[in-house]
Amino acid sequence: MTAYGAVNSLRNTIDYILHSSHFSLVDPSPNIIQVAYEELNPLQEILERLDSTSKSRSRKKVNALDERIKELIWEFEDILESLVYQQILSQFPADQVDEDDVGGEKIRFTIDLQFLQHHIPSFIERLEEMEEEYIYEVDNMPEDEDDDEVESISTRSGTKSKMIGLSDQFQHLKWSLTATSKQCFFAALVGTAGVGKTALAEAVFEDPEIISHFEHRIWVTVGRKSQFDDVSRDILAQMYGITQGDDELGAYLKERSEGMKCLIVLDDVWEEQILDSLKRCFRNIDNGSFHILVTTRDRNVILAMINPFSIMLVRFLKEDEGKELLCEKVFGEKSCPFQLDKAANKIVKNCEGLPLMIVTVASILSKAHNIDPKYWEDVAELRNSVFTDAYNEISKVLFPSYDYLIQYLKMPFLYMGVFPPDYDIPFSKFMNMLDTEGWFHSIETEQSLEESISEYLEELCNLRNLALSNSRTWNISYAIAFKTCRLHSSWRHVCRGEARKNKFYHVIKKLVQVLEDGVKGQRCLCLENNLLFSIKDFCNSVRLNCASSARSLLFFGPYHQYPIPIGDDFKLLGKLDALNLRLYTFPAEILTLVLLKYLALTCNGELPTTISKLFNLRVLIIHPHNNISICGSPSYVPVQIWDMRELEHIEILGKSLVAPCHSVSLEKLSTLVGVNADICNILELSKKVPFVRKLGVQIELTPYDDHNDLLSCFGCVSTLKSLEILKYSIINPVVNYDYVFRSSLMMLPHALQKLHLSGMGLSWKYMSVIGSLPNLEVLKLRAYAFRGSKWEEGSFLRLLFLLIEDSDLVQWKPTSGSFPYLVRLSMKHCYKLEEIHWSSRSGRGTIELVNCNPIALTCVRQLQPTQPTLFDVTASSSFDEKPTTIKFTRYWSGFE
Questions:
Q1: What is the DSSP code string of 766-820?
Q2: What's this model's pTM, rounded to 2 decimal places?
């Protein structure tokens, strides 16, 4: 199931070799690999044919063939990259590059690929044979024989049982079904597998009010196998007792439905054609009332046919609801024994609110007949196999959602499983890591990588309900902007199992996993125990079995403060993430990994001047172990970094970056964050990164600096026409000065969407410049970014989020008509704050007060907006003996 990603990876590898300015290909090398490249285009189209097949068909044979295709492509890619690697290494100059050479001609390597002439014909012949076989298997897929077994775990029990949790959604759904007067009303319950859609639908179906309201109640379990003829016959059998014949459902309903009130539940719908056909049956009925409730995992199935306001996302259980469900399944009507209470809480927390997981764990606990507190504690701390057994059991229910994913979503979804448990994956990190894997081939599309990844996450989180969007924001056009996402633990288990089986990646926490499972041929090793590389047996096994094939090495275990040798055996490594390892000096062996595209290290030592040997790097992230600087001894980023023209993302914290005198620039760079710079260097720096979209700069201001230069920095930044995010921080700010600034120097680029300022100590009057930015949506002001008791300037016509932290502000009173779309106002550590005026017309907002003057909360309570507005207000203080948090929601109609 990873052949599609493998095809894109090889296409990108060949494309880079053909067009890289670093390579001079010896004839006939271009023609040799161009032949292979052209063979991959039809293969990708053939693989995409699987997406249009019925979900009732078994994919076992197709998946096995997919695995063979992937292995063939990987084998060829290994030969190709090994050949390029050897030739690059043999031609690299041994001497260090002098600073005077920066900005000169790019280092070029002569690449001769004639060795591949012996491999290309065989490769293409085998690929064409597999293509023909793939087409045949896709066209002749049998019905899935395992479908009944899988559905039996999750479908309706048929017996009336106590419903636990989701009482709010139960009441809302019941009201929706009984309150509407429409003759034909469709509603839907959506959510991930095992979240309780069927249980919630069944509870409503069996509710006395529903029974008395509807003359007929019909329950049809649709599943993946059912065609509409099956659904139609099932409805007719339950409604009219008709057990034979293929009579049209619509005709029967038109003739016999006069005055009838009927509830039809279609459980576990996978194909939108089912609903489309059913809707046609009700098209000409005008004398009855039919309410149809649909449950489905995939929102795509219902989007075109059901009003979005009639779609309910079934939520996960809260911890108290989960505990009640666990105890009811294990102890029945008896309460949980006191000595097991603490462990029960941990067990429920580990289930992360998924009812199917809770019920499955409860079933295993019940069968064990073991109420020993030690046993329950071992379960809670994951020290035995209970959770693993439960994950394996519910994987039968979850797996079809992955198996029937469209091709281009499978690899990104699988990759989400590589990240540690309880880790919120930042969007930028996810995007950069996916980009350097090479699974995307976007030459023929105008869509940016960021737009593509956003669409993938939208599909996985909000439409397919496979991933969780922990943190997201809305821009002014109400498009979703993802900040973080993650997987539920049950889905992480599925992803990791599939990835290991397909040699996509192997997540390792214990040495026994290597000895038992093996790591042979794995393309990625992810360590959740960073100490493994200090064990000789582990290193020997890795060196023997997968060092030659691995493209990624990820140290995702807990942060380790002592260096661990990484080694130089991973010749073809493209990604190395060792942020969770402390390295005292930059490892020299990394400089031999010339195919690296992504490098992330924690290192306090200086970066070597030979860093430019890593000319393939797209992402360079260097963090310090501790943010400690020695007075008078600044640490600099080597000027040779400007020769690394492929760089797209630079994140180097605690080091100063100096722009070279030469006319060299990093035109592919879109993100430059964390670097230190002085005021004089900002102008030159901005010239060297003309297309940067995200810029984060720290400046250490001294009392001897001309503070008007502080504003002139903005003039330099204003030349960056593509800049969307600016983070500008003054290190060790001094806020008690009273300088006169020239307001003409205050300029910012109009494309700016997010602005973070810290420690500048400017007057609030300069806010008029910021407020006029036409695209600004997020503004964060920290550490006396602005100074003074009163802020009255206005506009900010597109701002959604405003944060003011550590400020001497007393009164915030923007002019009329300002901040019309503000939805969140956060004030933190504003000890003098007394007055807040809210003028948002957004309809809903959140005000957060953290460690602020209590008078400010009183002011918020007395607010009387002129527009209908619903506010959630949170006020908290950590200075009371017992820290408290006050939460309340208030609605102002505007007519009070």
A1: GHHHHHT-TT--EEEEESSSEESSEE-----TT--EEEEES----EE-PPTT-ST
A2: 0.90
